[in-house]
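re: the backbone from monday

yeah here it is again, tokenized this time
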């Protein structure tokens, strides 16, 4: 796998006019090399693919990173990168400008000796990551299945009188017992708290008659699921809760039905957004309709009013319309969608 991904990165480097690439983003390092540790630097040249790690991770890197050289560094990794770059005779050395601080950029300038040039680039690896291969898709499906099973469990577990954080803990424990991790901090938003799209889960008590918004996801082997459900505690939902829930659900279904290769992200976003607006709630849906999903929970561009992203088979996207009303609450429904050649 590493060799294929290294070659794909080299192809993208060539398109950008880059002879060597310094990789600092850990998700990108894991994608290219398979390394799962917390400290590493990747370097790809025309002839070498190297992962640099310190003494804590050298055995792990050798075990995990097939098709990539594992190199030990001590002290400042810049001193180990410098001869690799010099040996490559690269004229243009790329770095991931979206993840590099000014201080780190100053260090990198020491690596690149004139007349070579240090060049900031964006998404050279993320462009590859956005279309998933068969193995990645199966892993995401497993994460999504565990997340869906957890929701079924929560329907039996949640009772009036619990705190929001009690539910968040149960999500963590369920995933732990299934051999999964949290993809992100779970959002459990009771009653009026559901009006906050990214409510901070706390000590609020879940009460009978409230809506409860749950946004959570499992991580399996580094790949994430992301699911949102809105449920109603104790009683059947009242007329307004039913109305808004149905509008959000219908908006989601209409958007999902429209997903096809070749469609732009903004066109899918518009379908849900315009439907919600037609029902009188347009001002209460402020965020994008969805995002790419993979190693990152937000793995790349998705569905927004300005998205020029063109859908391709193999993309995994979330579709998550919502209506949020201050002082009342909110409804969001989110599912994870695989783009196929047929839709």
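seq for it, each position gets an aa:
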């Amino acid at each position: 796998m590493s060799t294929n991904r290294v070659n794909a990165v080299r192809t993208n480097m060539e398109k950008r006019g880059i002879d060597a690439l310094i990789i600092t983003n850990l998700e990108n390092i894991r994608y290219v090399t398979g390394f799962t540790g917390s400290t590493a630097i990747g370097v790809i040249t025309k002839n070498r693919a190297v992962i640099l790690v310190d003494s804590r991770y050298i055995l792990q890197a050798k075990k995990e990173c097939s098709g990539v050289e594992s190199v030990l560094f001590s002290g400042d990794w810049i001193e180990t990168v410098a001869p690799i770059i010099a040996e490559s005779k690269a004229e243009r050395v790329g770095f991931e400008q979206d993840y590099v601080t000014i201080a780190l950029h100053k260090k990198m300038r020491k690596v690149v000796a004139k007349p070579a040039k240090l060049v900031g680039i964006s998404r050279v690896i993320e462009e590859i990551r956005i279309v998933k291969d068969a193995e990645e898709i199966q892993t995401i499906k497993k994460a999504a299945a565990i997340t869906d099973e957890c929701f079924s469990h929560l329907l039996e577990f949640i009772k009036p009188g619990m705190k929001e954080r009690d539910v968040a803990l149960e999500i963590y424990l369920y995933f732990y017992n299934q051999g999964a991790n949290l993809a992100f901090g779970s959002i459990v938003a009771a009653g009026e708290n559901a009006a906050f799209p990214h409510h901070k889960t706390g000590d609020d008590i879940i009460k009978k008659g409230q809506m409860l918004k749950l946004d959570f996801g499992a991580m399996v082997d580094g790949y994430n699921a992301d699911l949102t459900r809105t449920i109603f505690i104790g009683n059947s939902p009242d007329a307004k809760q039913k109305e808004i829930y149905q509008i959000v659900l219908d908006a989601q279904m209409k958007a999902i039905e429209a997903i096809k290769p070749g469609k732009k992200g903004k066109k899918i976003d518009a379908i849900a957004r315009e439907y919600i607006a037609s029902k009188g709630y347009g001002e209460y849906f402020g965020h994008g309709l969805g995002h790419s999903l993979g190693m990152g929970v937000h793995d790349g561009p998705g569905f927004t009013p300005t998205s020029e992203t063109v859908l391709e088979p193999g993309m995994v996207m979330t579709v998550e319309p919502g209506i949020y009303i201050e002082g009342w609450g909110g409804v969001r429904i989110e599912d994870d969608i695989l783009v196929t050649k047929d839709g």
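The longest strand covers residues 211-216. The radius of gyration is 23 Å.
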